[in-house]
Design brief:
By secondary structure, this protein is mostly helical. It is built from four helices and no strands. The radius of gyration is 25 Å and the shape is elongated.
């Protein structure tokens, strides 16, 4: 019974990784025009690295079989981690810019409202 449960869980791991990769690719594709070049580039590089390591892993390849050395295996494993970190840094930079833009938009809306009220007040004072 425990073996069946463990086999089921092992089946869910690649599916979960695929769902995460699809979500990352979707985000990168839709943000290509509105994100800055650096943030989008970091997210794209991260998704590409993560995708390559996931694809090679799904094909049964790893750094040892690809590069023929233990060092190659370590670099292959670091590629996935570096990809996740690069995507996360790009995402954080994008989120910080988006938050700053929303704050600035609020300031400008407040300013527009105050100016409109001031113009109305001046019009009332100038009427004969």
């Amino acid at each position: 019974m425990a073996a069946m449960y463990f086999d089921f869980l092992q089946l869910l791991v690649p599916i979960g990784n695929l769902v995460i990769l699809v979500a990352k690719w979707t985000g990168v594709i839709f943000l290509r025009r509105c994100a800055g070049k650096l943030t989008w580039g970091l997210m794209l590089a991260g998704v590409i690295l993560t995708s390559l390591t996931s694809i090679t892993s799904a094909l049964g390849l790893n750094g040892m079989s690809l590069f023929g050395s233990h060092m190659g295996y370590q670099l292959w494993r670091l590629g996935s981690q570096f990809g996740n970190v690069a995507f996360a840094v790009g995402f954080v930079l994008y989120a910080m810019k988006a938050a700053k833009d929303v704050h600035r938009q609020g300031e400008l809306e407040q300013l527009a409202t105050a100016m409109s009220e001031e113009i109305d007040r001046l019009k009332e004072n100038c009427r004969p």
